[in-house]
């Protein structure tokens, strides 16, 4: 496919992830056709994006080289799927996390696009072999899993279907790089992908430590935000270990490997996230940040502002 043909991206679903993807793609100069099967929802989403892009421009945090007005000119809303797919070379699905719904979406899409159009899902926990099980040509299918919110957190996990062509992964990696994301390649599919498997391990041990009366909800969050997270915002766990020993990673494991194994052996079973013990953890969290929409919206806005500042710091370094 020539570069002249790689101009239009279709985003299916106009919720939070769909809007974020649309903003990411237009920041890289792609035309984006935003589709939603609920009439008027895509148009309403673009109105919301207009406000966001203008605010980002005012804050000097707008991504890409185009102005907010130029990026908005690349957006169009659609209530008709065939119209939304016309001329597209890449489809990013962002509907809610139900397997049957995603399968139906891709069945419908496949009937309306050429054989070389890449079909990508934003799913966070459904493996490609399930999502694309009803697609005939699976070689052009993959998961492109973003981190919420994608506009501020750049990682994208590219997860292949067992039949995905290598060129499809390469092309998607190039697209994600062009729009300023940080794509990573998984060599094969696995439940939870990479990010959520690591996150699940952190969640489980954090939950256990609170549930067993070792530490408070507030303090376990500080372990990450003022401790591990400070390093992990710039370097990962492998490089952290490599730098934390005089002679690198092999030296680190000689010094600390047995201690790590001892601690790992002391980990308990998977915690109960739903029983009576969970209620006290949830209550403790809600004492700090009440779960009503006002407080949650304020904290999400604060999160996004902090992530924006961190993204700028990382870019400048």
From TrEMBL:
Oxidoreductase among keywords: yes
UniProt-listed GO biological process terms: fatty acid metabolic process
A Pfam family matched in the record: 3HCDH_N
Stretches assigned to the 3-hydroxyacyl-CoA dehydrogenase NAD binding domain: 9-188
GO MF annotations, alphabetized: L-gulonate 3-dehydrogenase activity; NAD+ binding
Protein's UniProt keywords contain Magnesium: no
Domain 3-hydroxyacyl-CoA dehydrogenase C-terminal: 192-261
UniProtKB keywords: Oxidoreductase
Family: Belongs to the 3-hydroxyacyl-CoA dehydrogenase family.
UniProt-recorded name of the protein: Crystallin, lambda 1
